[in-house]
Amino acid sequence: MKPTHIGSALAVGALAISAGAFQAAMAEDPHSISANIGVVSNYIWRGQTQTDNQPAVQGGLDYAHASGFHAGTWLSNVDFLDSEGNDTNYELDVAAGFGQSINDDFSYDLNAIYIAYPDGRDLDFAEIGGSATYKWLTTGIAYTVYGQADNAPGVADSEALYIQGDLYYHAALDFALPYNLGLNLHGGYYDFRYNEGGNDYGHWGASISREAGDFGTFSFNYDQIGRDTYDEDPKLWIGWNKEF
């Protein structure tokens, strides 16, 4: 999973576990371990495809404690080029955080995540972030504290995305609908430290998901970027996710 947790049941892989992720540990046993597996027709993260508009198989393992502490790891295939023009084929995320419910309507989560591309060069980065949820509204921010592209040989400042100083703002609305359906409306804005050539961008999207019991959760999703320096075409994709 990545820094912004799944807005609906499947809207993007994200390892910064949201404030609701630790709630399963609030039962009699203070420790909780869960796993998840998913398949998506297009891996979209913060509005951009990570698989060149191709499918992805994803999965992760999470730990949560009744105190609010949580940690986990997540893996997905990807398809893009690194700083030397070589193919990057998979992503491995590791994250930890702390979240609590203040009352029935309000919760918060603080987290840190390291996003690694083991077969890529100068692509890894780390973020710290926080989010707050009030009823159906979640807002948050993530700050890049480290990036391998920082001062990397051969990487120009204008090309150095995901480096120290980048900021990402996001918000989502989640609604429960009849027939076990869920509606998620989400958007975000990426404020990169270096904005030469039009790196900063905003994006938005929507997801309809349906829980199917032991068969997992299915979703139909729409995402789009609002800046012509990126691929502005609407992205329509489907996904399936199962938690154990």
Report the end-to-end length measured between terminal Cα atoms: 16 Å
Task: Determine the CATH topology.
Answer: Porin
Give the amount of beta strand, in percent: over 45%
Low-confidence stretches: 3-27
Encode the helix/strand succession as letters: EEEEEEEEEEEEEE
Give a short account of the largest sheet. 12 strands, antiparallel, barrel
- Look at the helices and sheets and give the structural class: mainly beta
In the CATH hierarchy, the architecture is: Beta Barrel
Query: What is the helix fraction of residues, given as a range?
Result: under 10%
At the fourth level of CATH, the homologous superfamily is monomeric porin ompg
Would you spell out the secondary-structure blueprint of this structure?
Layout (H helix, E strand, L loop, with lengths): L30 E10 L3 E2 L2 E2 L6 E10 L3 E13 L5 E15 L4 E11 L8 E10 L2 E11 L19 E11 L3 E11 L9 E11 L5 E9 L9 E9 L1
Antiparallel strand pairs: 1-4, 1-14, 2-3, 4-5, 5-6, 6-7, 7-8, 8-9, 9-10, 10-11, 11-12, 12-13, 13-14
